[in-house]
Each structure stands twice: as C-alpha cells, then as structure tokens.
Specification:
Largest sheet: none
CATH architecture: Up-down Bundle
Number of helices: 16
Distance between the termini: 47 Å
Strand content: under 5%
Order of helices and strands: HHHHHHHHHHHHHHHH
CATH topology: Growth Hormone, Chain: A
CATH class: Mainly Alpha
Structural class: mainly alpha
Shape: globular
Number of domains: 1
Helix content: over 70%
Radius of gyration: 22 Å
C-alpha cells in the first residue's frame, strides 16, 4: 500500500522553489527558540501567580486573558493576515511580544508588579500570537512542497511534546537560579533569534496579494475580504464539516486535561508526583508520535490518518476513565496512547488545511478554525465542571471519549468530509457583494 501523500496542488498554488529546505528550516528553527522562550515565560508567570495568591480564580482569569484575543479577535485578524505581508506580520508580532515581556521585566525588577499588569501583558502576548500563528502556518504552505506538509506537521507536534516535558523542569531550575525577571529576559533573546532570519529570508506571498501589488487585480476592502472568507467556508461543505467537527471534538476532549489533577487525586489517591508522571508519559507519547508521523508521512488520504488518530484519542480517554483505582499504570498507558494518537489526529488535519485551502484565504480560515476551537475550551469547562461534581470526574472521560469515537464514525460516512482533499472549492470573488 502506497502511504506517500499524493500531490494534488491546486493550480493557483505557487510551487515552492527548489532548495526550499534550508530557508524554511532556518526560519522554523528561529521559531523553535521563540516557543521555548514563550513556554518559560508562561511557566514563570503561572508559578508567580500561584505563589503570590494561591487562588484558582486568579489563575483562571489569567487563562481567560490569554484566550480572549484568539477567541474574539481571531476571525477578524485572519483577513488582515491575508491582506498584509506575512513576513512583516511575524516580525512585528514577535517584536511586540518581546516588548511586552520587556515591560514585565521592568515591573518585576522595580518591584512595581501587580496582578493586573500580568493580565494585560498576557492579553498583549496572546494578541501577537493571534497574528503570528496564522501567518506562519499560511506561509508554510507556500514554502514547503505539498508532499512534505504532513511531515512538517509531525515535526511541530514533536516539538510540542519536547516542550511539554522539558519546559516546566527547565523553568523550575532557572527560577531556582535567578529572579523571575531573569527568566523573562530569556524570552527577549529567543525572540531576537526568531526575528533575525525573517529579516533576510523572503517568504512567498499569496497570488492575489502579488497580483494586487502589481496592479493586475482589483484591490478590495477589508470588509469585502472578511465577507469573502466567510462565504468561502460556508460554500465548501467539506471544509465547514471538518471545522464543526474540530470544534465538537475540542468541546468533548478539553475537560479531560483540565480535570486530570482531580482524576489523579480523587480516584487514584495520588499527588503531585503521580500527576507529573502522567503528564510526562503523555509528552513521551507526543514525541514518539511526532517521530513516527514526520518519518512516515501518514496515509495517502490524510483524513484517514487524522480519523485514525481521533479514534485513538477516544480510546485512550475512555481507558483513563475506566482504569481501576489500583491500576495506576493503566492510567499512564491511557495517556501515552492519547499522546501518540493526538499527533496522528492534529498533524494531518493541519496539512489538509494548508494543502487544500486557497493560499489567499488561509489566514482567514485558519484564524476562524483557531477561534472556534479555542472558544470551545471555556464553554466545555462550564459544562463539564458541574457534571463531574454531580456524577464524578470519571463520567466525562467515558462519555467524552465515547462521543468522540461516535462523532468520528459519523463523519467517516459523510462523503463531503471524507473527500475534502478532492472536492476543493474555487476561491470566492471578494468583489461580488
């Protein structure tokens, strides 16, 4: 069976030039350093809030401040990403995030830091990320050959696995050696490493943007572009179905990670060491899954690989909910399964978006997907919390995992979703009001 992803580049998608790898991986490596810096900042700030307040409400508010820009502004940011130079967007976003961190460093060093300062800075950093993430993701599809997109997605998942394992202990070690502002200063350095390659390496721009710049295509307004993006999604049943499915799965699965400390403490009578073991085993699973996907590349039909991964996640979540209290090793095995299969679910799905969505529309669509999926997180927690308090924490794992598998099986019988890579729709005309 040929498992090499089939090349089905749409005619309007520019073919990446030969010798793409050195340029792309130079930029990618810079972004890796930036992610490490961001992970250290997140750990340092969460730990400071925990030490200073010990309040779950404070931590929840900080999380909300970091989510709001992507939920509320995400759909509107995407149209700007498709209109502006994506390389400049990434430069400005990375620089703005570093400047915000610089303000935090001053506040910590001068002893003026207040909790509300952290809320504001987290909001600003998240806003920068709301621009940076779709710009980088949309640029990847123009820099990387179509047949390698799934492997790049596997590498990104592999990176997330390493970060989940090594960033917290590294952050704890650094905090034991230097003050909080010292750890935050690392983010300034890593941001500079990320920005430097972008100053010298060009990134291809979408065809419509190039045509408008050269005067061969009619220029459109922001609102025309925004409406065209929504029409593009609504007019493509397969894409709309996948987006709605992603939102549903995020709703079903997000509480399983948020409720994990309660599961470990209440059902397995464990403490912080047991929780750390579960999270570490999950990270090992992500790393292994990333290695496999980046080497293998997935099935020819990426949606099959993704659905296989989603079913695997559902199995792992159910297993976590059903594991007997005296079989902690089974909980570890369940989260290892979730870690591995999460890569198979997310990596190919991202590659599908990158390879099938018109480059001119990727900023808008990817921002819309991110906003919808992120919005499900607080909404699902509002529902899962009371249900788990009423019926026990295990119930959400069993029901959520079961519905996850059921939703995947239903989607697998919808031709528009299963054939999303073949039924690509033409771009909407932004001037057609």
């Amino acid at each position: 069976m040929d498992t090499t992803p089939e090349s089905t580049l749409p005619p309007s998608t520019p073919t990446p030039p030969r010798g793409w790898a050195p340029k792309f991986f130079t930029i990618w490596t810079g972004q890796v350093f930036s992610l490490i810096g961001s992970a250290l900042v997140q750990f340092a700030l969460v730990w400071w809030l925990t030490q200073q307040t010990g309040s779950a409400t404070i931590l929840a508010t900080a999380t909300l401040a970091a989510l709001l820009p992507q939920i509320v502004l995400g759909p509107f940011v995407g149209a700007l990403v498709d209109r502006w130079n994506r390389r400049l967007i990434m430069i400005v976003a990375d620089t703005s995030i570093a400047v915000a961190t610089g303000v935090l460093i001053f506040l910590f060093a001068s002893g003026l830091i207040q909790i509300w300062h952290i809320y504001v800075i987290l909001f600003i950093r998240s806003l920068g990320g709301a621009f940076h993430h779709p710009a980088m993701t949309a640029s990847t599809s123009l820099m990387v050959p179509h047949e390698h997109l799934t492997r790049i997605a596997g590498l990104n998942q592999l990176l997330q696995g390493f970060l989940s394992i090594f960033a917290p202990p590294l952050g704890a070690l650094l905090l034991s050696l230097m003050p909080t502002q010292g750890v935050l200063a690392i983010d300034i350095v890593t941001a500079a490493v990320a920005v430097l390659p972008l100053l010298f390496i060009p990134i291809p721009q979408p065809p419509r943007q190039v045509a408008q710049s050269s005067g061969t295509a009619e220029k459109t307004s922001y609102w025309q572009d925004l409406r065209a993006g929504f029409r593009y999604v609504m007019g493509w049943p397969g894409l709309l179905g996948v987006i709605l499915m992603a939102m549903l799965l995020n709703f079903l699965l997000s509480p399983s990670s948020a409720l994990l400390p309660l599961l470990v403490m209440q059902e397995f009578k464990g403490g912080a060491p047991e929780l750390a073991w579960v999270e570490s085993v999950f990270g090992v699973g992500v790393i292994l899954g990333g290695l496999v996907l980046s080497t293998w590349g997935g099935f020819k039909r990426r949606i099959v690989t993704s659905f296989m991964g989603i079913i695997g996640i559902g199995v792992g979540v159910i297993l976590a909910g059903l594991a007997p209290a005296n079989m902690f090793w089974l909980l570890l095995a369940a989260h290892f399964i979730v870690g591995v299969t999460q890569v198979f679910a997310n990596g190919p799905l991202g590659a599908i978006f990158q390879s099938t969505i018109e480059p001119d529309y990727q900023g808008r669509v990817l921002s819309l997907v991110n906003a919808g999926a992120t919005a499900m997180m607080p909404l699902s927690l509002l529902v899962a919390g009371p249900i788990s308090d009423w019926l026990g924490v295990r119930i959400w794992y069993v029901v959520g995992g079961s519905l996850c598998i059921l939703a995947t099986l239903v989607a697998a019988n919808i031709p528009a979703i299963m054939n999303i890579e073949q039924n690509k729709q033409p771009a909407a005309d932004p001037t057609n009001e």
